[in-house]
Amino acid sequence: MLFGSAVLLKTDDFIAEKAVNHLNQRYKVIGTGDDIYFFERGNLSVGITADEELGLIIIYFPKTDSNNSGGVMNFKDRLDQIKMKSDLDNQL
Question: Is 46 exposed, middle or buried (0-12, 13-18, 19+ CB in 10 A)?
Fold first, then answer.
């Protein structure tokens, strides 16, 4: 069972375009919200965005809500968790 996964990528236009093309080829485009592009396939949701702190990030998570705003909240919650973990790791 997938609980979630994140991929951090180098932030530049070429990589961003390649990442979006990769997702477009493998997943159904759901839409956008709060500068997050959403995709899904089966029970899997995927969001991609450029974050100021982390750079280009793709987060995979179980689909829990067909409503796009539910996906935005789920994505943002997971992004915040990754940032908190990153902050803790940097303090060590």
Answer: buried
Chain segment 47-64, per-residue pLDDT in tens: 999 998 899 999 998 886
- Per the confidence metrics, is the pTM higher than 0.90? no
Paired strand residues for 47: 38, 59
**Spatial distance between the Cα atoms of 70 and 92, rounded to a whole number of angstroms:** 34
- In sequence order, what are the residues at sequence separation of 6 or more whose Cβ sits closer than 8 angstroms to the Cβ of residue 50? 11, 16, 35, 56, 57
What domains are there in the chain, each with its CATH number? 5-91 (3.30.310)
Nearest to 2 by CA among 40, 43, 36: 43
